[in-house]
Write a structure and sequence with these properties.
InterPro entries: DUF3848. This protein is mainly α. Helix content is 83%, strand content 0%.
């Protein structure tokens, strides 16, 4: 097997692992009460986003093998993300500040107070 086929094969195995983990997670979540599902909304979105990122990636064989060694890759990456969540909140605060500035400027232009 040539390198590209080997690489593709490992990335497909990784994608299958992630797909199975996501399906198991989904099945577990759907067995919960509506309140528990609501409480897990952030986790549901993040794990889906993590899976999408992993599906889109093209990892080296070494990286794909390393990632597949995680017993629960989605959960492990999710927990890693939670440790870095401050950057997400900083980005959100900046987006809100930028949008506020845009709205204030738009309002001034529309009211004729700025040209």
């Amino acid at each position: 097997m040539d390198y590209q086929k080997y690489r593709q094969s490992l990335n497909q195995k990784l994608a299958k692992k992630v797909q199975c983990e996501l399906a198991d997670f989904r099945e577990d979540i759907l067995s919960k009460s509506p309140q528990e599902i609501y409480d897990a909304a952030y986790q549901i979105i993040l794990k889906s986003d993590i899976a999408e990122c992993l599906f889109e990636a093209d990892y080296s064989p070494q990286a794909a093998k390393a990632l597949m060694k995680s017993p629960n890759l989605l959960q492990d990456i999710y927990e890693e993300w939670l440790g870095r969540e401050d950057s997400h909140m900083d980005e959100l605060r900046q987006t809100i500040a930028d949008f506020k500035s845009y709205m204030v400027k738009t309002e001034k232009i529309l009211s004729g107070k700025e040209r």
